[in-house]
Design a protein that fits this description.
316 residues, 14 helices, single chain
Amino acid sequence: MINRTIVRTKVILTLFSFFQNADKTIHTAEKELLRSFSDTYNLYYLLLDLVNELTSYAQTKIDEGVEKAQAMHVDYNPNPRFVNNRFAAQLFTNRRLRRQLEEHKLGWDTAHESIGLLYKQLVESDIYKEYMSSAESSYNADKTLWRKLFTFLLPDNENLETALEELEVALDGSCWMSDMDVVMSYIVKTIKRFQEDNGADQPLLEMFDSEEELQFAQRLLKFAIDHSDEYAALIEEKLKNWDADRIAFMDMIILKTALAELFCFPEIAVQITINEYLDIAREYSTDNSPQFINGILDEIVKEQVAKGNILKTLKQ
């Protein structure tokens, strides 16, 4: 699940904290990096559990309606289709999900008010109305509902963001808001993979697609720290009339991490590395940072390739 784009971002944020605190050791930085991966993975499970939370909330509203109707001696015939959704029922019994939620004490209890607002928004959506009125009743239709909700309704949703901000404090998570878009895409990917015959044993995504991604993260962090002074000297040589102290701190971190990857990972094409770190600069630094970083890296790469210090393909 955690790919190299996420890895690069997590390494940079870890380095940002590391270089701001002189008391931190590389061992501390490695632990913080692993913790950040765990937090992102917990967000994946928490968002999967949102299906169960919204379904349970809907059942509560039906129960309240039944109780009120009985007290007033009136008829009340709610449509049970949403609460009887077969995909949601299968997900609720998923052994892997239940175990992760229990072990890490994950849940939506402290965001109950925001969940209520999100549920109200859900039932007012065209996606929900179309599903509830459709003549088709099948597992695939039930699964499609949730795929559409996670694709169109839940991304960039203020009520969901408010709920996660509350949970981030209560559950001691970190960077959930910045991770949400990419994790949401993995939720959609997971939903597409669900098969009814798999029952409670439906596989979920692993934290890393392979052991290589974790090794890449650990090596990138170590190279950036071990060669920090060397990379800083290379950067300062290209500043021309700029004072190194005037460079945005985040820009320096991004440049050092990019150089660590350029020098120490010959299997990754130069342009792929540069493009990845320019994207990070757009997200986490100033408006002028991508152009500045691109210029510095371009000069260093040309010089170091000519010297034979960077031995890799320039494009892929």
